[in-house]
């Protein structure tokens, strides 16, 4: 049962004896370069009633020693050690260990503002919400520090929302670490992470399940976390990670199949899937793209045949990309190699006319934003 009939009244800060307001999970693996900055930002939090759970996934560098030092310095910190088994298993272990009214997450190479968890927990509590979510900053530390704001508030999104009335929330970058979640809500719906060893993108299915079950989500027009981009290229050359995003969507699709509101969720999921697959295709090294595109095309041919894709949920440029990819993936790949996705205006218009017909071409010409 989803949180639909009556939203919970919201917990008072630290309402239960021995229960901190928030448990912050910090999954760690060989991150000695950045970990101190991350943990320093948590020590500086303005919310005193907090526990920080550092989950060491079998690190082989100095990560474990850094965690031990912070646990000795600050009684709110505790360490959980486990053999290396991947991000999903680490996060699920952290969820089992958490005692807080709310659960927050901070990646071990990121850092956050002092008021982060005080503001997020207060927003969730005051709204009686199952989750509270803020924007965040993309952060580069080299060659010189710079930030780029990503706001979750804008358009029709803001205040307290019901995700079933705002599918665009599903399409916002998952960014699980810019939110807090009511712990009992996660437990009640068994919302956990996919534990495939070596996988990536485990935040996709977790976030989708949160939004699918929640009735009230508080959105903050603020940003607290700095999400580090310096190492973003680390997996683009890894053949073993090419199809990890597909595993996450297999999990999402299995979840949808068992729900009474599947007809509403299918097109929402397919828009998210297109955005995620398209992003993955372009981020891969060129030698890995063609194999991924073949699977991309086949999965969407099946989805369209099953009437799970609502083309109107895609902007015009995405519609033509989907039609091109499913219609002739080899031609799309050749076009992508030739143009890097940035053709001249005449070439772009010709592609719209070929794959979308005059109607889609006109919608693209009329589209603004």
TrEMBL record:
GO MF annotations, alphabetized: hexosyltransferase activity
Matches recorded under InterPro entries: Glyco_trans_2-like (IPR001173), Nucleotide-diphossugar_trans (IPR029044)
Keywords of this entry: Transferase
Pfam family membership, one: Glycos_transf_2
Domain spans labelled Glycosyltransferase 2-like: 23-139
Name recorded for this polypeptide: Glycosyltransferase
